[in-house]
């Protein structure tokens, strides 16, 4: 398939393809981190994860509308405020949901699956009633559109770079929070041994609520970032949920590092295969490889060893 | 909506004689009396098969998804059908009878569509059903329509390969849309090579099959053909492939949320469609979709369809004005919405030509029924139950509307089973 191209053309295509793989990687990391925190630390499978992302996207949509009407001079920077708002709103809703619903279901993992799935349906229909069934178009500042010209042939999309930066910052933030803060220490203690953690005076219910809120908040930021590359509609969240699960389960349910490694592996495999095969075929092969590896390592790539 | 339709929407009543006069029908008869109608033919003559027809009303069904993933697309069709029904009622109804509609929700679920169809035909005895959007829902409804001999008016452009005695297809079938579009790109833009890209299900695959055959016939080249799963949101790899293959035309039939991702990422990757290098020709992006994608992301793309909101003719001006008056100024009208609007009108003309509501009698008169007040201009029903219609090429602007840059001279003949294209 490479007949008749010069070496420099091929090199630049491969450079851009490498970049495509990396930006898919950062999208996966953004999607999966929130879910991984909740699933890994609490054992709750949040089927409404995609809907929390879309809540973040709608927050961005509303913020952009607000800035356009009232603060047009600051429009170029509204996106950062939108991300903060998305985080706060999703985290607040997450905490509320945890208090209303999730905490009553902690020892019944299948029930949380059903309950959060129901929640996702409720949220979708709520979006439909509030924002209408049609997708909304989120206006972005001009500087976020377009591409960054490296050489004549190599162009890197700015929004791809932007998503990458957000993904890395959030991954770093989560790492610091989990492994370098007192709160992170508490969370890890609860995960490893809940009765003992309670015995030394950790408020495990409070830790659970904060963890769930944090996971939902990160989903909100991811949703805000994805307004740059995807659609914002009542059921757009559904498009992300399968890939998100794949990444988290493949990485090993209780390991954040595993999530990142698996996001990298899956994104590279998929984007390379997409280039050489057709899109649907690439997806099929990626899934087959993942299924194969999970049969050999049912706990995922990096399973946390805990004494039960 | 209309004053005469909703009030009596679900009132049960005896077939044949409407003895209980509701407020709505009273209003209707006053209207009839004042508008000097021709004598209304008696019910037992125009309805011999037990349909829900009384001396002054007739019931029809509207069956679309107003919840679930398809609601985004189907709500425009519901609005258009209700508008047509309201206008028909204001102009005196059908055979002197006011139309009442019963609306059911298919809920984006194909078995539900079949179930609701059965309910509409068996329990409500409706005289016509305006509905369905996806091919999957139509296929689910089809056996029920044929079993109970109903008549469905189906608005979406679709892949063809179907011709049921119980369906009137008011949208275009694939050849009408595709052949004209490709011919235009070749003649007007000198296109030599094509890249076919679509979502992975029956409509894009069949469409691209037809496109590929046609491109082969013209002696030109297809340099890539590719499908992505529905809901796919990452198109960077295929964009790189397109940059590598340098086709003259990207022929796109990506649908749903994927559409938004695709065009945003094309734009971000530095592809400016206004430069036409490559030119992008789509058969799936109507004005409705542009609302979600954002006009600035699709500026300069071309679409091949039979209707654009910006069509400049008196019928369309009236239609757009009426639609906006009914549903608000910020509404946009896409190809399918217009096709849905045709359904009730075509049904009315058929009933009046046959002088009867009976399905078997109107089926005999369908061929040749014409509608010269159609927003798209003029349409006529072919004996294969599809419509003769013109195909247009529109170019997208940042405000989300299309400029019509070309239209076929003649009406395109519908050909659901194209020879040599299967």
From TrEMBL, chain A:
The keyword Signal does not apply. It comes from the Bacteria. The chain crosses the membrane at residues 20-40, 52-71, 77-97, 158-178, 212-233, 239-263, 275-296. It is a multi-pass membrane protein. One of its GO terms (cellular component) is plasma membrane. It is found in: Cell inner membrane. GO terms for biological process: amino acid transport. GO terms for molecular function: transmembrane transporter activity. Keywords: Amino-acid transport, Cell membrane, Membrane, Transmembrane, Transmembrane helix, Transport. InterPro entries: ABC_transp_permease (IPR001851), ABC_UrtB_bac (IPR017779), BCAA_transport_permease (IPR052157). Pfam families: BPD_transp_2. Belongs to the binding-protein-dependent transport system permease family. LivHM subfamily. NCBIfam families: urea_trans_UrtB. This is Urea ABC transporter, permease protein UrtB.
TrEMBL record, chain B:
It comes from the Bacteria. The keyword Acyltransferase does not apply. The keyword NADP does not apply. Residues 1-38 form the signal peptide. Keywords: Signal. PANTHER family: ALIPHATIC AMIDASE EXPRESSION-REGULATING PROTEIN, PTHR47628. This is Urea ABC transporter, urea binding protein.
């Amino acid at each position: 398939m490479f007949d008749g191209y010069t070496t420099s053309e091929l090199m630049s295509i491969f450079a851009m393809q490498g970049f495509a793989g990396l930006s898919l990687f950062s999208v996966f990391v953004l999607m999966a981190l929130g879910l991984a925190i909740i699933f890994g630390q609490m054992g709750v499978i949040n089927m409404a994860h995609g809907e929390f992302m879309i809540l973040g996207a709608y927050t961005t949509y509303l913020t952009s509308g607000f800035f356009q009407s009232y603060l047009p001079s600051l429009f170029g920077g509204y996106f950062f405020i939108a991300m903060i708002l998305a985080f706060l709103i999703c985290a607040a809703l997450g905490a509320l949901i945890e208090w209303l619903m999730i905490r009553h279901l902690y020892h019944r993992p299948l029930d949380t699956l059903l309950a959060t799935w129901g929640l996702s349906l409720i949220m979708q229909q709520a979006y439909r009633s509030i924002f209408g069934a049609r997708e909304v178009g989120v206006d972005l500042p001009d500087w976020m559109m377009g591409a960054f010209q490296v050489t004549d042939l190599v162009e890197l999309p700015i929004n791809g770079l932007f998503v990458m930066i957000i993904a890395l910052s959030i991954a770093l933030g989560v790492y610091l929070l989990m492994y370098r803060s007192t709160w992170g220490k508490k969370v890890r203690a609860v995960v490893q041994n809940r009765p003992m953690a309670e015995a030394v005076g950790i408020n495990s219910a409070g830790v659970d609520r904060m963890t769930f809120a944090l996971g939902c908040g990160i989903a909100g930021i991811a949703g805000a970032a994805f307004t740059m590359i995807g659609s914002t509609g009542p059921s757009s969240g559904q498009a992300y949920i399968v890939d998100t699960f794949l990444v988290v389960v493949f990485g090993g349910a209780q390991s954040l590092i595993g999530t990142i490694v698996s996001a990298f592996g899956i994104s590279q495999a998929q984007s390379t295969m997409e280039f050489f095969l057709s899109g649907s075929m690439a997806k099929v092969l990626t899934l087959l490889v993942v299924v194969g590896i999970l049969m050999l390592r049912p706990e995922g790539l990096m399973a946390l060893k805990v004494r039960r | 909506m209309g004053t005469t339709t909703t009030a009596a929407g679900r009132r049960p009543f005896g077939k044949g004689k409407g003895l209980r006069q509701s407020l709505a029908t009273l209003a209707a008869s006053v209207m009839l009396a004042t508008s000097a109608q021709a004598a209304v033919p008696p019910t037992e003559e125009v309805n011999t098969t037990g349909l829900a027809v009384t001396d002054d009303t007739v019931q029809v069904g509207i069956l679309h998804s107003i919840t679930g993933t398809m609601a985004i697309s189907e709500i425009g069709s519901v609005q258009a059908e209700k508008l047509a029904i309201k206008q028909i009622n204001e102009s005196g109804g059908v055979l002197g009878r006011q139309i009442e509609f019963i609306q059911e929700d298919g809920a984006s679920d194909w078995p539900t569509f079949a179930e609701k169809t059965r309910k509409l035909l068996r329990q409500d005895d409706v005289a016509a059903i305006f509905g369905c959007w996806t091919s999957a829902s139509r296929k689910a409804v089809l056996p029920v329509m044929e079993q109970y001999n109903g008549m469905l008016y189906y608005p979406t452009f679709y892949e063809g390969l179907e011709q049921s005695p119980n369906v009137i297809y008011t949208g275009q079938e694939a050849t009408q849309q595709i052949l004209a579009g490709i011919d235009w790109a070749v003649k007007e833009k000198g296109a030599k090579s094509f890249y076919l890209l679509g979502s992975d299900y029956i409509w894009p695959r069949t469409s691209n099959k037809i496109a590929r055959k046609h491109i082969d016939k013209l002696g030109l080249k297809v340099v890539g053909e590719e499908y992505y799963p529905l809901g796919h949101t990452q198109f960077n790899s295929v964009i790189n492939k397109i940059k590598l293959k340098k086709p003259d035309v990207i022929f796109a039939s990506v649908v749903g949320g994927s559409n938004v991702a695709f065009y945003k990422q094309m734009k971000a990757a530095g592809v400016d469609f206004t430069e036409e290098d490559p030119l992008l020709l789509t058969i799936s992006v109507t004005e409705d979709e542009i609302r979600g994608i954002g006009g600035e992301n699709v500026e300069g793309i071309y679409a091949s369809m039979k209707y654009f909101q910006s069509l400049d003719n008196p019928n369309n001006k009236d239609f757009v004005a009426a639609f906006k008056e009914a549903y608000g100024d910020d509404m946009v009208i896409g190809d399918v919405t217009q096709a849905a609007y045709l359904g009730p009108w075509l049904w009315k003309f058929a009933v009046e030509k046959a002088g009867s509501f009976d399905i078997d009698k109107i089926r005999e008169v369908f061929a040749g029924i014409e509608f010269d007040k159609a927003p798209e201009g003029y349409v006529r029903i072919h004996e294969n139950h599809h419509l003769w219609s013109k195909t247009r090429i529109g170019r997208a602007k940042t405000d989300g509307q299309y400029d019509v840059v070309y239209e076929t001279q003649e009406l395109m003949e519908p050909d659901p089973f194209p020879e040599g294209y299967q």
